[in-house]
Amino acid sequence: MLNEWLDEVDKVYDQMVTWRRYLHEYPELSFQEENTARMVGDILAGYGIEVKRNVGGHGVVGILRGANPGPTIALRADMDALPIQEENEVPYKSKIENVMHACGHDAHTATLFGVAKILSRHQDELNGTVKFIFQPAEEEAPGGAIWMIEDGALDGVDIIFANHVLSTMKLGNFAVPMGSATASSDYVEVKIIGKGGHSSSPHSAVNPIVIGAQIVNQIHLLMSQKVDPKQPAVAAITIFNSGVAINVIPSVATIAGTVRTFSPTQRESVRNHLKNILDHVAVTYGGTYELKYQEGYPALLNTEKEAKIVRAVLSNINSLKVVDTPPIMASEDFSYYLEHVPGVYFFTGSATDDPNTQYPHHHPKFDIDERAMKNSAKAFLSLVHYYLG
Length: 389
Prior knowledge:
- By secondary structure, this protein is of the alpha/beta class.
- It folds into two domains: about 1-180 and about 300-389, Aminopeptidase, CATH 3.40.630; about 185-295, Alpha-Beta Plaits (2-Layer Sandwich).
- Helix content is about 35%, strand content about 30%.
- It has helices at about 1-25, 35-45, 105-120, 145-150, 210-225, 265-285, 305-315, 335, 370-389; strands at about 50-55, 60-65, 70-80, 125-135, 160-170, 175, 180, 185-195, 195-200, 235-240, 250, 250-260, 290-295, 300, 320-325, 345-350.
- The strands form four sheets. An eight-stranded mixed sheet has the order 1-2-4-3-5-16-6-15, sandwiched between helices.
- Helix 1 (about 1-25) packs across helix 9 (about 370-389), helix 3 packs across helix 9 (about 370-389) and helix 5 packs antiparallel against helix 6 (about 265-285).
- The longest helix has 24 residues, at about 1-25.
- The chain is elongated, with a radius of gyration of 23 Å.
- The relative contact order is 0.19.
- The mean pLDDT is about 95.
């Protein structure tokens, strides 16, 4: 039975490519996936799958009930794009200015279409139910997962799986992290308040740019001196804004960035150290500050029992293999699903020797080898077969 399902992946592959390229041409930003959601619902309905629309916003849930009773397995794909101007010169280049599928969510959605199509043909072979969760707004906090969960997307679900294509891993490989898969992500904004003045008289002013520069330096020292090297953490300052004229010392500067960790203890420790830096540096230079610290997605932790099963199941797919990779510092709101039910978030390699498949995620030239969708589909089908076959 499973071999028949897997053989059908090759038959629907061209259609998955067509779906993916259409989505790539017409991307939609987080919380704006109206047309994408309509397409998702219509395609699922066309395969006779029960469809629930507008779940937690633009979310869509498809329900495929097997001929016999059994557990309910959920498969999740994210649908949103990023505010990036695409630089690829490909026939399916984004037609929406400053919006691009630069992370692979178009491939995730198209892959799950293919899986749904195949499973809908074998509904009478399923001992249980498959829920197809198409989620909006993974890229922007607070994310779409929370709202979909609140709106019942996980009702009756016993276990859940999701996949992400990965441009840093070779095509043909899977990675199934045991425990930590992605980091938590917190958002930090600091308004530094000094005293403006003329650039010829810095002694009579309090330059917030100088204070900000010291804060940035101290944050980098913090990561090397105060953070346990056995518990990875990253604090990245990505915004530094101040000043309006070349001969004017401004009164205000703003710095902002993200903090990423893998444990609640480390998360709280970095936050406390950051507060100490702000207190001491601002006072030393005669300034004050206002801190906004927003906790984003929690760290994503695969459940151990299910991760072992997924590693075994995926290792049995012909010509594909599971490799060991460290957890990544990016964040993912799939973590919220795993706070409610057991499950696994795994990675599918999408890079080849072609440099065009090796650009990092969120790069304006990001692209994948589309054959990765075949591998992701085979992984999902194999997991459904294991639990419901």
